[in-house]
Amino acid sequence: MSATQYVLSSLVVVLSLPYLTSLSTFVQNHLLKRCTIDSYRASPKSYALVTGASDGIGKGVARELVRRGFNVVIHGRNRQKLEGVKHEIEALGKDSDVRILVADASEEKVDWAGIEKELEGLELTVLVNNAGGMPIPSISFDAQPYSSIEAGVRLNALFPMQLTHLLLPRMRSLPSPTAVLFIGSIASELPPPYMAAYACSKAFVQTLARSLSFDERRLLHSRVEVHYVQTANVNSHNGVHEASSWDTPDAESYGRAVVKIVGCKTREVCPWWVHAVQRWTVYSMGEWMAENVMLMAMPKPKAE
Fold first, then answer.
1. Residue 251 · residue 237 · CB < 8 Å
2. How many domains is the chain partitioned into structurally?
3. What are 10-25's pLDDT values in tens digits?
4. Which pLDDT belongs to residue 302?
5. End-to-end Cα, the chain, rounded Å
6. Which of 175, 184, 220, 263 has its Cβ near the most Cβ atoms within 10 Å?
7. Mind telling me the catalytic residues?
8. CATH number at residue 224
9. Name one GO biological process term (predicted).
């Protein structure tokens, strides 16, 4: 083999490595991996805390965790809706303890002392930071009320950060594996039009998960597993995606996929296989083409 052929062959191998790694991760997570969530249930007294569980993905995750034998704490800002979810979960007949935590994650002054008191004494082994979301605006960033932008950042970025900061020490101190999940959004990598506040909030959480994972694995050598759960379209009854399909699962199906993916040893993961393919495609097509696809997929702004 000539020197030129050797260099070209080596270049092909090097350039192919990211794609081969992605393919290997896809096969492992979606074809080979079996659910290991039971290893995060240290005892019959183990609890999972799911934020934003009054509907949508959070509710789907909470239901699946109860099916798997966990006690759960469901969080939301509307007690009446949470009571309805509690009764629905209890009707599954799994004899799990279902508790309610009421707090508005978008408020400027969250009662963290009250939250800590409500969770006191619970063996929390799984934390699912799911609370989030923002309405799709039809006006530019600078025309949006700053109060709504600020509330959205608190909901999507500051609340999960502060809650994790509060609970991480006690989760790390447990003798069994524990898991912290951040439910993300593809918007962190491909921002939709006019959604700068939401996109940067999810990018913040994405980086937070990466940093925490590095600390827990490489510096603290703890048994805390951190996942950033990359999410695309999900039918969560929020008026954005109104029908389920192969690329838009219903919230309950997606909740099952999220629970199954815990412990996959991949920090950033797409629980729904179609979302994983879509994410790979976005990375492969280049920024200009990806932006055009996003523009075609988004609803057109309403005329003022």
1. yes
2. 1
3. 776 676 666 666 666 7
4. 47
5. 66
6. 184
7. 198
8. 3.40.50.720
9. fatty acid elongation
